[in-house]
Write a structure and sequence with these properties.
The structure holds two protein chains of two kinds.
Chain A lengths: L1 H27 L5 H11 L6 H10 L6 H15 L4 E2 L4 E2 H36 L4 H15 L2 H14 L11 H4 L5 H38 L2 H8 L4 H7 L1 H5 L1 H5 L1 H10 L2 H6 L5 H10 L3 H29 L8
Antiparallel strand pairs in A: 1-2
Chain B lengths: L13 H11 L11 H9 L5 H4 L5 E3 L11 E7 L17 E3 L6 E3 L2 E6 L5 E6 L13 H12 L13 E2 L2 E2 L1 E6 L2 E5 L7 H5 L12 H4 L10 H7 L5 H9 L4 H5 L10 E5 L7 E6 L5 E3 L10 E7 L2 H9 L5 E2 L6 H9 L1 H4 L1 E8 L6 E4 L6 H8 L1 H10 L2 H8 L20 H5 L6 H11 L18 E7 L3 H16 L3 E7 L1 H10 L5 E4 L6 H6 L15 H8 L11 H15 L3 H18 L3 E2 L6 E6 L2 E2 L4 E4 L15 E2 L1
Parallel strand pairs in B: 1-13, 2-14, 16-24, 18-19, 18-20
Antiparallel strand pairs in B: 3-4, 5-6, 6-10, 7-8, 9-10, 11-12, 12-14, 15-22, 16-22, 17-20, 17-21, 23-25
The chains are: A mainly alpha, B alpha+beta.
């Protein structure tokens, strides 16, 4: 097992290299560069930048170098000095912007993940065990609504309701008066007042999807002979369901942990924009639009790392959970 | 004698300016008021007393309605993805000269006075004695000369936005007279100099503190290169550019260290936090109100950085924004903002359009394809297209019926208004359209489309920036109108950066649309992009523009004689000191523009609006809307107050 993990860790190195190379290439694919978006802003304001100036600036920022040179400068600084470079757009070191946002992102995402599982697993079990009951129909209906409603619409709807009905200030994670204040009970309560909207919105569609998965998987297991046998042997219904079929039905949850981590960053971008959350998604989007390639590259790299770690985690967990998939040789 | 309205700049008579400057400040016996937060510091001895912080002769700003109260935070915003030059509008408009609130002229600002010689070749500026940077260091001629000698004239450093200092091929020469006096001289006349010097970002002479920036230059600091490489930059040039913002204004605004002369100074720069940027009052700000209170009244500006304009709209409705006209002042937002007035505790102010049209359709008359270039340059062809457009239909469906049909022109009511330029060929008349198009391209193919002189179907691909939503709407409605007269129009929506590359750097586009440029007196003279092809914004004939700026350039195209005349008139307009001559030259340019009919317009531009909270005072009800006049900065935000 240990050898297996070690091997997997080694495989991650070339994978990561490939990912960083491809993502850097894709960021560079659109026409123009950071200076192009900048000159357009200058032109709108009535000034003009002549081509000679643009060329000199391009050289100054190293944007005239061939792709592989730019890539090497970028990646070698990260590997050897832990330096992610400068963000053109914000005029700050990328690492500063990156970690600033990652904290909130991981916090909100983790909270959403907990909510997703806390809702989806019990409801899924209930729906499977009590198939075609009133409760199952209600949850199925809600589940499909949850799947069908785009999250940003839901976000806008909830914001509108909490603003017009409850008079709450919405958007962001804090009211303006607490934003820069030190931590206090009042600030924490203010955070909770704001936090429920993003957490619910982010959780809702994934919850709906997972309920369906759980229900389908468990339904398959419930009719299998081992369940009948166990029941015949007099095992209590609750222990029976929890100990065997549920454990097997959890397989897909565990094997998708690898996707959950990055999708919580990039998947909720629109929601984060609409709700004005200080998460990584909006910053990544902006970096892509303004072709701020070092910032965008850093985000994509971090997401790649998270994906790989997530994949490894899910494989290990899967082995722990299900003896059938344990690595054998 | 020409009678000119107050909208048009006429007071560049330079003698008047100097007189106005001294007459402006009923020199105060003593400045008496300061913000409580500064008074506390001064009393504690951590800050020098007020008298030592102000110049001997502070600039006196007359509050718009009343003398204000100190304190409070101006809650503002920056929407992500935009340029930070937006900040000139709020906290950073302090050039040597500034526009007056009505945008009819300029007044001395950081400069105490300015005197020009009759030929407009030499300008003598006098600075304020005792004027200090926000860190208490003196601001003198040395700072100006530092910028001139070590930055502007330094071949290693890239400096942008200095068009006002260049006449033809010749750059201005700065000469120090004494610690407070310097001259700027030109080889030939530069009549627009003082007007252009007040443009939002023509302010580098007043934002380059020598005592701070010299540490990044090897001339003053042998370790400058090391300073840069320690931070992972390529060398001192890159670090200097980043710290000073000599080339890119965003660099200036993301540096919270640099001392300034502005009313507020960055405390938390955009990027240091990606949620809020905060600017705090400058204890050494050089202006006082009529009661002798040091400005600004407001303690700080808090810019919330949002990613999306819809979020911002909600913030306005919630009363979380004190004053704003950017981003939100669109026709579609008006009704929801109107409904939310009471709840959000705000009201509206008008921002007057200064642009020549809502949209200018530019056919590429210098297309590298000779057949296309010839067709697009054929005035009959453009007239035909113009008559084929049902402008009223566009106005009704895109602008809820507001505004009248017009070509790109000077606004009606302005003394420079040229009716022919504004109204010619604007009526929707299919017979006329076909008549003119028949002259230019009589032959049609089996599908009813017209053919060009080489027998190809006339297909015009309009390449358009997809983010300009109203233009996209108009163009989509217009495509069937073109088809009705046998033109195969195709709309190609592209991303902004692709648009920049395609239109500005390649020259083989068929047509594009844009707006901006000046459309009222002063704005039009300073940015006449649709009336004479003088700059890279002349999308209707990039080749001519290149020819004007560099006759030997590879893709320069020699314009027709009449356009060359217009360019000569433009030179004359820029150089003359005589206002009447300048107006005369500009009128002739407009006549030629009417003859040439460079591009096709749709309607007069709409005025926009902003919102201001009811507890936010001294904001005018109306102000011009422009970047060069960085709305609302010329209306003196330092005298806005909350109560």
């Amino acid at each position: 097992m240990l050898l297996y993990i070690l091997k997997r860790l080694l495989y991650m190195v070339p994978t990561l290299f490939g990912m960083s190379l491809v993502s850097f290439l894709i960021i560079q694919l659109p026409p123009g560069d950071f200076l192009t978006s900048l000159t357009s802003a200058i032109a709108d304001s009535g000034q003009s930048l002549d081509q000679a100036s643009i060329d000199r600036l391009t050289a100054l920022y190293g944007l005239d170098q061939p792709f592989y040179v730019q890539y090497w400068n970028w990646i070698s600084n990260i590997i050897f000095r832990g330096d992610f470079g400068w963000s053109f757009d914000w005029g700050q070191p990328v690492s500063r912007l990156l970690w600033d946002r990652m904290g909130v992102t991981i916090f909100v995402s983790a909270l959403s993940l907990v909510l997703i599982w806390a809702l989806a697993i019990p409801i899924g079990i209930y729906s499977a065990v009590r198939r075609y009951s009133i409760g199952d129909y209600v949850f199925t209906f809600l589940g499909f609504v949850g799947l069908a409603v785009p999250t940003f619409i839901l976000a806008l709807g909830l914001m509108y309701i909490s603003f017009t009905w409850f008079g709450l200030n919405v958007g962001g994670l804090f009211s303006p008066e607490y934003e820069q204040a030190p931590w206090s009970l009042a600030k924490f309560i203010d955070l909770l007042q704001h936090l429920w909207i993003p957490v619910v919105v982010i959780a809702i569609s994934s919850t709906a999807a997972l309920i369906r998965v759980m229900r389908a998987n468990l339904s398959d297991e419930l009719s299998k002979p081992y369940v009948v046998t166990a029941r015949a042997k007099g095992l209590s219904e609750f222990t029976l369901i929890m100990r065997y079929p549920v454990r097997l039905a959890l397989n897909p949850f565990v094997s998708t942990i690898g996707w959950v981590l990055p999708s919580l960053i990039s998947g909720v971008t629109i929601t984060a924009i609409v709700l004005n959350l200080p998460m990584a998604g909006p910053l990544l989007l902006r970096a892509l639009v303004s072709q701020d390639m070092y910032l965008a590259g850093a985000f994509i790299l971090i997401m790649s790392v998270l994906t790989l770690i997530g994949m490894l985690l899910s494989d290990i967990l899967l082995a722990v959970l299900d003896p059938r998939v344990r690595y054998q040789r | 004698m020409i009678k000119l309205s107050r909208r048009l700049f006429v007071t560049s008579s330079l003698a008047t300016l100097a007189a106005a400057a001294t007459g402006l400040g009923p020199a105060l016996a003593a400045a008496i008021g300061e913000a409580p937060m500064l008074k506390a510091l001064a009393d504690a001895g951590t800050l020098p007393p007020l008298a030592d912080r102000l110049p001997k002769n502070p600039m006196v700003v007359t509050p718009l309605r009343e003398v204000g109260k100190y304190g409070g935070t101006w809650r503002s915003t920056i929407v992500g993805g935009g340029s930070l030059s937006m900040l000139f509008r709020y906290q950073a408009y302090e050039p040597l000269m500034r526009y007056n609130p009505e945008w009819t002229g300029v007044i001395p600002n950081v400069a105490e006075s300015v005197v020009a010689n009759d030929a407009a070749t030499e300008f003598t500026f006098k600075l304020r004695e005792g004027h200090k940077w926000s860190d208490g260091q003196p601001y003198t001629t040395d700072d100006v000369m530092f910028w001139y000698e070590d930055v502007f004239s330094n071949p290693d450093i890239e400096v942008t936005n200095q068009d006002h200092l260049i006449v033809g091929e010749d750059k201005a020469v700065f000469t120090k007279v004494d610690a407070l006096t310097f001259t700027v001289s030109f080889k030939s006349s530069n009549g627009l100099f003082l007007l252009l010097l007040a443009w939002a970002d023509s302010d580098q002479t007043t934002r380059f503190p020598k005592h701070y920036l010299s540490q990044f230059l090897p001339k003053y600091n042998p370790d400058a290169d090391k300073l840069a490489t320690d931070q992972g930059l390529s060398g001192w040039v890159q670090l200097f550019q980043k710290k000073s913002g000599a080339a890119l204004e965003d660099d200036f605004f993301t540096n919270s260290e640099i001392p300034v002369l502005h009313p507020w100074k960055m405390k938390v720069a955009p990027g240091e936090s990606t949620e809020h940027a905060i600017a705090e009052r400058n204890p050494y700000y050089f202006k006082v109100d009529t009661a002798g209170n040091q400005l600004p009244y407001l303690d700080s500006i808090d810019y919330v950085l949002v990613a999306d304009a819809q979020v911002l709209l909600l913030k306005c409705l919630q009363g979380e924004i004190d004053l704003l006209d950017q981003y939100i002042g669109t026709p579609t937002n008006k009704s929801v903002l109107f409904d939310g007035k009471e709840r959000g505790g705000y009201d509206f102010y008008t921002t007057l359009s200064t642009q020549p049209n809502e949209m200018a359709i530019c056919l590429n008359m210098t297309h590298p394809d000779k057949v296309k270039a010839e067709l697009y340059s054929n005035k009959d062809f453009r007239i035909g297209l113009s008559h084929a457009i049902d402008r009223q239909a566009l106005i009704d469906s895109v602008f809820v019926g507001i505004g009248s049909a017009s070509q790109p022109a000077i606004a009606e009511g302005d003394p420079l208004y040229n009716e022919r330029l504004a109204k010619q060929f604007t009526e929707f008349d299919l017979a006329k359209a076909n008549e003119f198009l028949d002259k230019a391209a009589p032959n049609k193919d089996a599908d009813g489309y017209r053919l060009d002189s080489s027998g190809r179907r006339i297909t015009i691909i309009v390449e358009q920036d997809q983010n300009r939503l109203e233009m996209v709407d108009m163009m989509q409605l217009m495509m069937p109108m073109l088809k009705a007269v046998g033109i195969d129009g195709q709309l190609k929506l592209i991303d902004r950066s692709l648009w920049e590359v395609r239109i500005r750097q390649n020259m083989d586009y068929d047509a594009t649309t844009n707006r901006f440029g000046g459309g009222i007196g002063l704005a039009a003279m300073l940015d006449p992009r649709y009336f004479v092809p003088y700059s890279g914004n002349a999308f209707y004939a990039m080749g001519w523009q290149i020819w004007y700026n560099d006759k030997t350039a590879a893709n320069a195209v020699e314009p027709p004689a009449q356009v060359q005349d217009a360019l000569k008139l433009y030179d004359e307009m820029k150089s003359t000191v005589d206002d009447l001559k300048r107006v005369e030259a500009f009128k002739q340019i407009l006549e030629i523009a009417a003859d040439q009919f460079y591009c096709i317009g749709i309607k007069v531009p709409n005025d926009a609006y902003g919102i201001v909270r009811n507890d936010f005072h001294n904001v005018p009800d109306k102000m011009p809307n422009s970047f060069g006049y960085p709305t609302p900065a010329p209306t003196n935000p330092e005298q806005y107050f909350k109560a």
